[in-house]
Amino acid sequence: MTLRPLFLATLLPLVACVGGGGKTTMQFYPLEGQIAAEDPTLVIEAVMENVSGTSGPLKFRLPGRVKCEGTWSSLTPKTVSRSNGLSLTWKKTGGEIGNETRTEARVNDGELYAVCEDGRRVQGTFVIGSGTASGTGQATDTQGNVYKLLF
């Protein structure tokens, strides 16, 4: 009997849990340039993936169905705390040992960069709250368009 099927059966749930990370949308509001001149009410919706992490894929379409793909990244510091000792309370009687990694509550800087099918490049900066999937910023593209970012 081979152990390979058993090994694969135990590995599959672990692989399914990795990644994911959630998605959120980011809105690009054209402020200046040709896109803003043509339709100042246009809102370009982008999808940010892996928002529970510190970077991930970014996908959106510019007017004319121009597909753009890239990456967003945020510098989100984490702290590690270690605990051990004796607890003598009614709710927690006994010892407590463990490690905890948590995100520091603060505003963090982020960047995005994407390349579009028509050769255009979009890059920008934003600020994002630790432990959240919301932020604000600004981006520009190589054709002179300027965008306000909200997510």
Could you state the order of secondary-structure elements as H and E? HEHEEEEEEEEE
**What class do helices, strands and sheet pairing give?**
mainly beta
Radius of gyration, taken over Cα atoms and rounded to an integer in Å: 22 Å
Strand content: over 45%
End-to-end separation = 53 Å
Low-confidence stretches: 3-19
Question: What spatial form do the alpha-carbon principal axes imply?
Answer: elongated
Q: Main sheet, how many strands, which sense, barrel?
A: 8 strands, antiparallel, barrel
Number of helices: 2
Tally of DSSP β-strands: 10
Report the mean per-residue pLDDT as an integer.
80
- The percent range for helix content is 10-25%
Side-by-side strand order of the widest sheet = 1-2-3-4-7-8-9-10
Which descriptors would you attach to this protein?
single chain, 151 residues, eight-stranded antiparallel barrel, two-stranded antiparallel sheet, 2 helices
Question: What does this entry look like structurally?
Answer:
By secondary structure, this protein is mainly beta. The protein has a domain at about 20-75 and about 105-150. The protein has helices at about 5-15, 35-40; strands at about 25-30, 45-50, 55-60, 65-75, 80-90, 95-105, 105-115, 120-130, 135-140, 145-150. The strands form two sheets. An eight-stranded antiparallel barrel has the order 1-2-3-4-7-8-9-10. Strands 5-6 form a two-stranded antiparallel sheet. Strand 9 (about 135-140) and strand 10 (about 145-150) form a beta hairpin. It is elongated and about 70 Å long. The termini are far apart. Mean pLDDT is about 80; it is low at about 5-20.
